[in-house]
């Protein structure tokens, strides 16, 4: 049964290692219930120090001014917006996996969706930090919200940045709800298995009195379905709207109709890559290979390959349109990307995003842990550079040669970006330690035993 | 907002000896902590806003307000002062021998802005960069405040004791032991006093000289004709002009008059058609950028070329004896192609067209003499070139009064010989700014008793015993006689900031034995005793107009001899030319932040000077821009930085004076490199210089990194002939119709503001930039920030090189907010901090801006400026500040500097975007005045600061809906075009394409 | 299942089940509440109105205007011609008080100010943010009475701020000036009230074609 076959007539089993319902619970709850392993403590310490670095950089930024970054007159957005789009992109995989794959009844999602959703939420938090602190006067950033005020001033709904504020906050709220609702049955499981009072109380609070009653399950399924339906359009809208920040402006290299689909593809691309990176580590450290199977990884790699190719197509299409439009500024912007002062960034992007993922055509590489680990990381580096290329190279040389200028970041920008990983990791490690990283109930539902027509399994 | 406060005590009326105000005069300027009470809080608006926010937190109820704010009304209202309304006073500023009449805007007795005086022939309503920046110099906290003796703070009384003892000594030997070295003064009263001093001490030596100036030219003409005259070309009536190394549009303080007149003839619409300008020069000058034909020649070749031209002219015209005898004997070296020379000659001699040559101040006597002779041949003298008596020469009758470098040389000899016991130095900075081979410093050290009257502590005052603070022209009485003999009264706008002494009082004290400095007002009035100044009405009239009397030209003096020969040059090595800086001149303005940060009009370099060389020379020397090199000639050497300048002459290095100050204020000290040591006495340029790269590099902060226009049709220019063939060249056909996807606003009622800039007239002189800076409280950001592309200038002058690297043409394009009707910036601002006004302005609301910077990214011309840091507080002269709340800062502008701020414009804090709004404060002022008088606005009633000061009259602002307005008329011109029109911005600022007028023969040649 | 011996299965009482809904409602209410607190209590309407500092000299507008019948312009001379409505000079006070009540300690203070030239330090009452450029002359000449912004100063013993002077408050009038416009003759008559303000205001508005600016640059530069 544990032999891997690719005969389409036979469905690949999604849970290996001859698990029973009980053993599934045990296996998934183990990390939560056991004492934190050394590696966890160590990496949590690192994460915390990075988080401290982020806070230090933010304080310096607010105290001294945006001038601590390397931005200059033509290039008014740099690592700040790059970081924002980068994290929002990463924050894409989660909801896609949970919502869309759920609606498509992709059973294999079950053992990774929890994981991916958590990643989504934390990534969006990082993005939020960036969008909030890229402004010059963060203490009046509340002007961004349509709140009644004695100035009788309203926000400008024509501004893509305004749409961003709404899109991202909505996305965050829905993802959080979706994630939490999915957690409830498992929280209840943890509550019931709890051996100390405190654990019982805390998990109890968040389990919201779940008793697994039939009606509970009905409501739960209904709610989950609704949320999935709600968040499905968001998956597409969020990054489309983020892309409007660029597409709606009239800057050569930004003003492009292909941006929305191209950004969404890129986001899924980077999101899945991040999931793979994290999954490979988690499944090894928590010995969850039997839930996050090679089959899962391979499927994800296929998606990476597909989206990577879409992104490559978008790159090519941008160039074609730039040439085909006959717009001198547009065509210059793209020639300048490939051969201008920032050519190094452009070619890094191309090789990371278009060339390396193509290796996944080979089954061997698709199924080799080290290979996919490296490639998934390369992809995320590439996607960071994609955002950098779009933002910086378009800005640094636009219409009037007199205002052309070169932009390079300061240590503050760099440290802030590194620090944002601290924020992400801190939350993610806490998640790994205190919450079930696999949706126990859902996994059970896709086990053969859950099939009413199943025979021979031990009905406990 | 209350501005009725102590500063208002500094008004003319109060100045007339009301002692009661004295204590507040002091409190006002020494007590920095009282700034808040002094009503400057309008200028620190956002900090206060933060304060009130914080306060909202602390004070639960509304009945409290902290900090309490106070209002200080006058005790006795000065006549004519309306609190909150500004008044203009007329005065004049002299820079060396050059005088410009000015109108000074004053808010409650605080001079805030300098504008030109339309009644003054040298201004015509325009003011140059130095004049406008001088108001910042007035408030410069680095200026000397108290007299010092041997570095110890002392008193004026002690100085006067010392002086009287010196004078009694001098009386013994009829002043043989006395030496007075003064910077060039244009003040008749000073001249009178110096002459009187001279007659009182017949043997005393009086010298008047500037590092750069008209002296060499005047000297040459005196040597030839025996009379000290100075030529004043009437540029508006010269059809064909040859500049022989003359930057009459650029660095000359006389450039305002020249620019206005010259620019008139750059419009093809002019009744007499366009003029044609040939320029022979060694480095790229502003005048060169306007040339129809420019020839780059190293200085020695410049002289040869002139001889070549003279011969050609003689050959064609048949020549006057003198010229014939001069050039006939000279060897000929063809540095210009024969075709060029003959073309020029025929052009100059072509009948029924006027033509003239102009020689640069820094050229050799030989060149000046030759140019004078040639102008005689061309019939320009007395016709298109007027000659005026050189004002300074009128008192320099005795031989003991010497002008220019020769005078300095004699003074140095006298000091070195030890006969001089007392040296009185008035202004200037001879220790720093004299040629290295003169050895002024060593000679001065031999003089036991020295006094220096100076604005700043500088290299010279460091070497002097007594150092007296010198009064700024805005705080002292005086007078000024322009080169065209127009006389003006210099009236003070404000009480002296410190214990300073005006030039006139200082000189008068040399003649009196008083225990206090004589009144400068009395001395000036005494000068005009004869001309009816006794009558108070006359006097007041003079003060009102700013002009006492206009001058009349003298008869053209007849040249008798030609005592000059071409400058001897060594065959080997490079030649080095020196010219004063476009920003800090000879170094006298080096502590002025506005000028330090002003981009050089050609190289766009800020905060530094550099050695400009051609790319060919750079290749041969193996250096590139930013490399340090040691440049040595005549046994002395200077280290300086290379900057490759397209269009510089090969085999020649152009050095800029005024930098490398070792003793100066916090702004100017240690900027750039001192090149004076390389200069040689009596030489217009230095030859045989050698270069050795130092292997170090140096950061140069330029405001424009990319010089090419990239074949983009931005600053359009065609020749007259091309224009005749295709009059509508400026309007390009668009591949698709320019339409918006939504309904556009009509803007069809009320005033609709617009701006038109005539690129044909614009010389790129930067006057508009400083005008904007002083009008709109624009901060300086410092070299490191400029190097990072963060300068804050709302209007910038884009400079493009067109053509080859060696022989490029230059295009200037003033660029500021275009006030697009379809403004890309407006729709992307999430908080509506930039929106359109009914009158078509692109409003920028600083207090609403949160600083997303999106607007700038979407601005196609990148004219929006972001306050990345709080630049007013990072100014080297900022001071520690009392904090109000958490988000308040540690520093604020010096209280003295704050007094320059324009109270009508908010001072922006960090984190907000700012930009040009066509001087909306001036628009509001005019609109309200008109509404209160219930009438319509008149055309020209409202002038933006840039338009108001433009010497070329190239910028015109007004109501484009009024078909009779000047701006509407300009926009109806066929040359009118909108930049980046294809983006359908519907910009309110449009340009008139530039037209050049090359010689058809030469065009065929190339 | 030894764990269940230690910890009982049910740690929460039944009523806890109702908590979530309470939290939901309470949270929402709190959110709205906070916004309301800032919007109302932290607005100038609440923070500024009623500010009544003690002045160095207890000058009574009620006495001088209502009882003695001084015109506003006798002291605030520039209000019709300048942006700034000036506080009177010491001289102005002394015009009368050189004869009247000369021996009152406060008048002595004024006398002293005139002799020494030290201005009297009045406390600022009506303070607009520094980035707001208000022009008195424009409003007076358009027919906006002092009372519209300063209230019944003629009845104030001690001057206090009567109106919020907030942006929305300014806009109310800029968008509907007819509610405040009055004939020039009554601009300085603080006690005057039109029987039919709206209709009269409309007439004045048309007659003098008064179109108050609503652009940002009308007040902000």
Structure description:
The complex is a heterotrimer of chains A (about 450), B (about 1000) and C (about 220). With about 450 residues, chain A is mainly α. Chain A has 16 helices and no strands. Chain A has helices at about 20-35, 40-65, 80-90, 95-105, 110-135, 160-195, 195-205, 215-245, 260-285, 295-325, 330-340, 345-355, 365, 370-395, 410-435, 440-445. The mean pLDDT of chain A is about 90. Among the domains of chain B are: about 5-25 and about 705-730 and about 765-995, Alpha-Beta Plaits; about 235-385, Dimethylsulfoxide Reductase, domain 2; about 575-700, Barwin-like endoglucanases. Mean pLDDT of chain B is about 85; it is low at about 1-60. Chain C folds into two domains: about 5-40; about 55-85 and about 120-220, no CATH class. Chain C is about 45% helix and about 0% strand. Chain C has helices spanning about 5, 20-40, 45, 60-65, 70-75, 90-95, 105-115, 135-140, 145-150, 165-175, 195-205, 215-220, and one strand at about 120-125. Chain C is extended, with a radius of gyration of 28 Å. The interface between B and C is large, with 61 and 50 residues. β1 (about 70) of chain B pairs antiparallel with β1 of chain C, so a sheet runs across the interface.
Label this structure with key terms:
heterotrimer; B: 1006 residues; alpha/beta; Dimethylsulfoxide Reductase, domain 2; Barwin-like endoglucanases; 29% helix; globular; C: mainly alpha; 2 domains; 12 helices
Tell me the layout of helices and strands.
The complex is a heterotrimer of chains A (460), B (1006) and C (221).
Chain A: H1 21-33, H2 38-64, H3 79-90, H4 93-103, H5 110-133, H6 160-193, H7 197-207, H8 214-247, H9 259-285, H10 294-325, H11 328-339, H12 343-355, H13 363-366, H14 369-396, H15 411-434, H16 440-445
Helix pairs in contact in A: 2-15, 3-5, 3-9, 3-14, 4-5, 4-8, 5-6, 5-15, 6-7, 6-8, 8-9, 9-10, 9-14, 10-11, 11-12, 12-14
Chain B: H1 12-15, H2 22-30, H3 45-58, E1 70-71, E2 86-95, E3 98-107, E4 110-116, H4 129-138, E5 148-149, E6 152-153, H5 156-172, E7 178-182, H6 188-200, E8 205-208, H7 215-225, E9 229-233, E10 240-244, H8 255-264, E11 276-281, H9 286-289, E12 293-296, H10 299-317, H11 321-328, H12 338-349, E13 355-359, H13 365-378, E14 385-389, H14 391-395, E15 401-403, H15 404-417, E16 422-426, H16 430-433, H17 440-445, E17 449-454, H18 459-462, E18 466-469, E19 478-481, E20 487-490, H19 503-509, H20 520-527, H21 529-533, H22 536-545, E21 574-579, H23 593-597, E22 605-606, E23 611-613, H24 615-621, E24 627-633, E25 636-644, E26 652-656, E27 685-697, E28 701-702, E29 717-719, H25 720-725, E30 753-758, H26 767-775, H27 783-787, E31 796-802, E32 809-815, H28 824-828, E33 834-836, E34 842-844, H29 854-857, E35 865-866, H30 871-874, E36 879-880, E37 891-892, H31 895-898, E38 913-914, H32 920-932, H33 945-949, E39 955-959, H34 966-971, E40 976-977, E41 989-992, E42 994-996, H35 1000-1005
Parallel strand pairs in B: 7-8, 7-16, 8-15, 10-11, 10-13, 11-12, 16-17, 17-18, 21-26, 23-25, 29-42, 30-41
Antiparallel strand pairs in B: 2-3, 3-4, 5-6, 5-18, 9-14, 19-20, 21-27, 22-28, 24-25, 24-27, 30-39, 31-32, 33-34, 35-38, 36-37, 40-41
Helix pairs in contact in B: 4-26, 6-19, 7-13, 10-11, 10-12, 10-13
Chain C: H1 3-6, H2 19-41, H3 44-47, H4 61-67, H5 72-75, H6 90-97, H7 105-116, E1 122-123, H8 136-142, H9 146-150, H10 167-175, H11 197-207, H12 216-219
Helix pairs in contact in C: 6-7
């Amino acid at each position: 049964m544990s032999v891997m076959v690719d005969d389409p007539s036979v469905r690949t089993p999604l849970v290996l290692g001859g698990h029973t319902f009980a053993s599934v619970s045990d296996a998934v709850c183990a990390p939560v219930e056991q004492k934190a392993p050394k590696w966890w403590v160590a990496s949590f310490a690192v994460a915390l120090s990075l988080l401290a670095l982020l806070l230090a950089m933010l304080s310096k930024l607010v105290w001294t001014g945006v001038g601590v970054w390397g931005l200059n007159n033509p290039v008014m957005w740099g690592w700040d917006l790059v970081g924002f789009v980068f994290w929002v992109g990463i924050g894409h995989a989660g909801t896609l996996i949970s919502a869309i794959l759920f609606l498509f009844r992709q059973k294999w999602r079950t053992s990774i969706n929890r994981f991916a959703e958590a990643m989504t939420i934390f990534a969006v938090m990082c993005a939020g930090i960036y969008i909030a602190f890229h402004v010059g006067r963060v203490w009046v950033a509340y002007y961004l919200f349509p709140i009644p005020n004695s100035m009788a001033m309203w926000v400008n709904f024509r501004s893509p940045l305004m749409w961003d504020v709404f899109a991202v906050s909505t996305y965050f709220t829905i993802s959080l709800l979706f994630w939490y609702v999915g957690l409830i049955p498992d929280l209840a499981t943890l509550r019931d298995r709890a051996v100390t009072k405190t654990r019982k109380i805390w998990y109890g609070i968040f389990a919201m009195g779940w008793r697994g009653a039939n009606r509970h399950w009905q409501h739960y399924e209904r709610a989950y379905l609704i949320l999935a339906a709600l968040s499905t359009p968001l998956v597409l809208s969020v990054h489309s709207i983020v892309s409007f920040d660029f597409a709606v402006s009239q800057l050569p290299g930004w003003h492009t109709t292909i941006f929305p689909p191209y950004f969404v593809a890129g986001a899924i691309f980077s999101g899945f890559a991040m999931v793979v990176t994290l999954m490979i580590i988690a499944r090894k450290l928590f010995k969850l290979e039997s839930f996050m199977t090679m089959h899962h990884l391979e499927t994800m790699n296929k998606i990476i390959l597909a989206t990577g190719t879409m992104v490559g197509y978008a790159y090519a299409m941008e160039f074609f349109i730039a040439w085909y439009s006959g717009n001198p500024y547009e065509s210059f912007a793209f020639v300048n990307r490939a051969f201008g002062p920032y050519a190094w960034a452009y070619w890094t992007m191309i090789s990371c995003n278009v060339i390396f993922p193509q290796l996944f055509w080979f089954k061997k590489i698709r199924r080799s842990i080290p290979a996919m680990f490296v490639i998934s990381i390369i992809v995320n580096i590439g996607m960071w550079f994609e955002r950098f290329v779009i933002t910086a190279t378009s800005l640094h040389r636009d219409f009037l040669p007199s205002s052309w200028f070169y932009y390079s970041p300061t240590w503050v920008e760099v440290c802030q970006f590194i620090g944002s990983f601290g924020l992400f990791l801190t939350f993610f490690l806490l998640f790994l330690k205190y919450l079930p990283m696999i949706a126990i109930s859902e996994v059970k539902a896709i086990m053969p035993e859950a099939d009413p027509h199943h025979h021979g399994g031990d009905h406990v | 907002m209350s501005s009725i406060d102590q500063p208002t005590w500094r008004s003319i009326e109060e100045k007339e000896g009301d002692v009661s105000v004295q204590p507040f005069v002091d409190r006002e300027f020494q007590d920095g902590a009282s700034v808040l009470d002094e009503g400057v809080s309008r200028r620190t608006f956002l900090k206060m806003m933060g304060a009130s926010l914080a306060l909202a937190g602390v004070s639960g109820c509304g009945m409290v307000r902290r900090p309490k704010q106070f209002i200080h009304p006058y005790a006795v209202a000065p006549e004519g002062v309306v609190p909150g309304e500004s008044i203009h006073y007329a005065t004049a500023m002299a820079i060396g021998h050059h005088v410009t009449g000015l109108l000074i805007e004053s808010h409650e007795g605080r001079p805030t802005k300098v504008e030109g005086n339309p009644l003054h022939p040298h201004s015509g309503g325009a003011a140059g960069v130095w004049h406008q920046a001088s108001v910042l110099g007035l408030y410069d906290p680095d200026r000397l405040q108290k007299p010092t003796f041997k570095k110890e703070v002392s008193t004026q009384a002690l100085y006067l004791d010392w002086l009287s003892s010196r004078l009694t000594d001098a009386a013994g030997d009829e002043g043989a032991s006395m030496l007075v070295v003064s910077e060039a003064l244009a003040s008749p009263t000073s001249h009178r006093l110096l002459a009187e001093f001279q007659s009182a001490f017949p043997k005393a030596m009086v010298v008047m000289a500037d590092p750069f100036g008209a002296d060499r030219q005047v000297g040459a003409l005196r040597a030839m004709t025996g009379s000290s005259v100075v030529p004043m070309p009437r540029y508006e009536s010269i059809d064909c002009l040859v500049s022989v190394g003359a930057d009459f549009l650029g660095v000359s303080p006389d450039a305002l008059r020249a620019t206005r007149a010259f620019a008139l003839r750059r419009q093809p619409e002019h009744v007499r058609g366009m003029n044609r300008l040939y320029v022979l020069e060694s480095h790229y000058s502003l005048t060169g950028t306007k040339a129809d034909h420019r020839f780059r020649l190293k200085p020695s070749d410049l002289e040869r070329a002139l001889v070549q031209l003279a011969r050609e002219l003689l050959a064609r015209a048949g020549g006057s004896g003198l010229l014939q005898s001069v050039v006939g004997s000279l060897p000929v070296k063809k540095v210009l192609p024969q075709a060029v020379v003959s073309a020029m000659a025929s052009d100059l001699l072509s009948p029924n067209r006027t033509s003239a040559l102009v020689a640069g101040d820094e050229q050799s006597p030989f060149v000046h003499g030759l140019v004078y002779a040639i102008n005689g041949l061309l019939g320009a003298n007395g016709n298109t070139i007027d000659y005026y008596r050189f004002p300074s020469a009128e008192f320099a009758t005795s031989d003991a009064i010497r002008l220019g470098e020769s005078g300095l040389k004699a003074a140095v000899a006298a000091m070195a010989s030890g006969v001089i016991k007392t040296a009185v130095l008035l202004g200037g900075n001879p220790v720093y700014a004299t040629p290295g081979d003169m050895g002024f410093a060593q000679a001065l050290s031999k003089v036991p008793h020295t006094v220096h009257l100076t604005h700043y502590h500088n290299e010279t005052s460091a070497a002097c015993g007594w150092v007296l603070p010198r009064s700024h022209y805005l705080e002292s009485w005086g007078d000024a006689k322009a080169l065209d003999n127009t006389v003006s009264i210099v009236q003070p706008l404000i009480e002296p900031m410190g214990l300073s002494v005006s030039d006139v009082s200082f000189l008068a004290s040399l003649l009196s034995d008083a225990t206090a400095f004589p009144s400068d007002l009395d001395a000036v009035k005494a000068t005009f005793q004869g001309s009816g100044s006794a009558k108070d009405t006359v006097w007041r009239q003079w003060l009102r107009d700013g002009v006492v009397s206009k001058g009349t030209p003298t008869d053209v003096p007849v040249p008798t001899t030609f005592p000059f020969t071409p400058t001897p040059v060594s065959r080997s090595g490079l030649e080095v030319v020196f010219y004063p800086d476009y920003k800090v001149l000879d170094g006298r303005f080096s502590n002025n932040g506005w000028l330090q940060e002003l981009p050089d009009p050609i190289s766009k370099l800020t905060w530094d000077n550099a050695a400009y060389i051609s790319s060919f020379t750079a290749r041969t020397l193996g250096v590139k821009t930013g490399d340090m090199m040691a440049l040595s000639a005549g046994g002395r050497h200077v280290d300086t930085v290379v900057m490759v300048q397209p269009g510089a002459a090969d085999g020649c290095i152009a050095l800029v004076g005024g930098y490398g100050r070792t003793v100066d204020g916090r702004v100017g000290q240690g900027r750039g490199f001192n090149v004076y040591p390389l200069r040689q006495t009596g030489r217009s340029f230095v030859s045989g210089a050698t270069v050795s790269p130092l292997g170090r590099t140096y950061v140069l902060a330029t405001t424009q990194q990319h010089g090419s226009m990239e074949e983009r049709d931005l600053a359009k220019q065609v020749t007259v002939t091309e224009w005749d063939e295709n009059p509508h060249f400026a309007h390009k056909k668009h591949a698709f119709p320019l339409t918006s996807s939504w309904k556009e606003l009509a803007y069809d009622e009320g005033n609709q503001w617009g701006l038109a800039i005539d690129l044909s007239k614009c010389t790129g002189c930067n006057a508009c930039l400083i005008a904007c800076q002083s009008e709109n409280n624009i901060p300086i950001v410092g070299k490191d920030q400029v190097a990072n592309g963060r300068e804050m200038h709302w209007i910038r002058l884009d400079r493009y090189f067109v053509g080859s690297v060696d022989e490029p043409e230059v295009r200037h394009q003033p660029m500021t907010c275009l006030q697009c009707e379809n403004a890309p910036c407006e729709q992307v601002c999430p908080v509506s901090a930039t929106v359109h006004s009914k009158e078509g302005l692109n409003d920028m609301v600083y207090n609403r801006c949160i600083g997303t910077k999106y607007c700038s990214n979407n601005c196609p011309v990148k004219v929006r400026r972001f306050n990345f840091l709080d630049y007013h507080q990072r100014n080297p002269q900022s001071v520690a500040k009392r904090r109000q709340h958490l988000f308040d800062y540690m520093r604020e502008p010096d209280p003295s500097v704050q007094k320059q701020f324009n109270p009508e414009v908010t001072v922006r804090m960090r984190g907000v975007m700012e930009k040009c709004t066509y001087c909306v404060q001036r628009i509001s002022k005019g609109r309200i005045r008109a509404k209160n008088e219930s009438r319509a606005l008149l055309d020209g009633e409202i002038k933006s600061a840039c338009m108001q000061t433009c010497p070329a009259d190239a910028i015109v602002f007004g109501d484009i809906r009024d078909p009779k307005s000047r701006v509407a008329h300009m926009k109806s011109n066929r040359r009118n075009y909108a930049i980046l029109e294809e983006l359908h911005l519907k910009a309110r600022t449009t340009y008139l394409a530039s037209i050049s007028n090359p010689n058809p023969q030469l065009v065929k040649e190339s | 299942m030894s764990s269940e011996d230690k910890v009982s299965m049910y740690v929460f009482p039944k009523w806890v089940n109702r908590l979530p809904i309470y939290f939901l409602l309470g949270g929402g209410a709190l959110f709205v509440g906070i916004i309301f607190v800032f919007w109302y209590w932290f607005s100038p309407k609440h923070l500024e109105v009623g500010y009544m500092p003690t002045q160095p000299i207890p000058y009574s507008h009620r006495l001088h205007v209502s009882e003695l019948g001084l015109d506003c312009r006798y002291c605030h001379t520039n209000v019709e011609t300048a942006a700034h409505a000036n506080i009177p000079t010491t001289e102005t006070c002394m015009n009368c008080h050189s004869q009247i009540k000369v021996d009152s300690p406060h008048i002595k203070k004024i006398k002293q100010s005139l002799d020494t030239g030290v201005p009297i330090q009045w406390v600022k009452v009506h303070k607009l943010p520094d980035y707001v450029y208000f022009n008195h002359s424009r409003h007076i000449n358009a027919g906006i009475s002092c009372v519209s912004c300063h209230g019944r100063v003629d009845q104030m013993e001690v001057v206090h701020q009567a109106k919020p002077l907030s942006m929305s408050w300014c806009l109310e009038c800029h968008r509907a000036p007819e509610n405040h416009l009055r004939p020039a003759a009554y601009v300085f008559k603080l006690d005057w009230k039109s029987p039919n303000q709206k209709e009269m205001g409309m007439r004045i508005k048309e007659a003098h074609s008064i179109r108050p600016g609503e652009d940002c640059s009308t007040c902000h530069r």
